[in-house]
Design a protein that fits this description.
Length: 107
């Protein structure tokens, strides 16, 4: 806590008996003002924290839905390419079997 120095003019007017209680009153006022400032700061911080948490939750929900959409799109894309690959494999194997049968039954 800070030390309060009372000017000599005020000490002369109040006297030592009056200066002491005056100092205590000033200290109490200062302490109450600090407590109030801390309380206001805490409330402001909590409000801002709640706002930011709300923003973060919204961003997370948005990102989550975007990721779900992207995953579904990639799933369908992968499935499409799998079928194209399988059809290509069937075509190649059919060609190989046809060529082997043609060479085997060739007279």
């Amino acid at each position: 806590m800070s030390v309060i120095a009372i000017p000599s003019v005020l000490t002369d007017k109040l006297g030592n008996k009056g200066a002491e209680p005056f100092t205590e009153i000033i200290k109490e006022i200062d302490l109450e003002a600090r407590k109030e400032a801390i309380t206001i700061s805490e409330e402001r911080f909590e409000r801002r924290l709640a706002e930011e948490m709300g923003k973060v939750r919204t961003e997370i929900a948005t990102a989550k839905s975007e990721l779900k959409t992207e995953i579904e799109r990639n799933k369908s894309e992968t499935l499409k390419w799998m079928f194209i690959f399988w059809i290509g494999q069937i075509a190649v194997l059919s060609g190989i079997i046809f060529t082997m049968l043609k060479l085997y039954f060739r007279d």
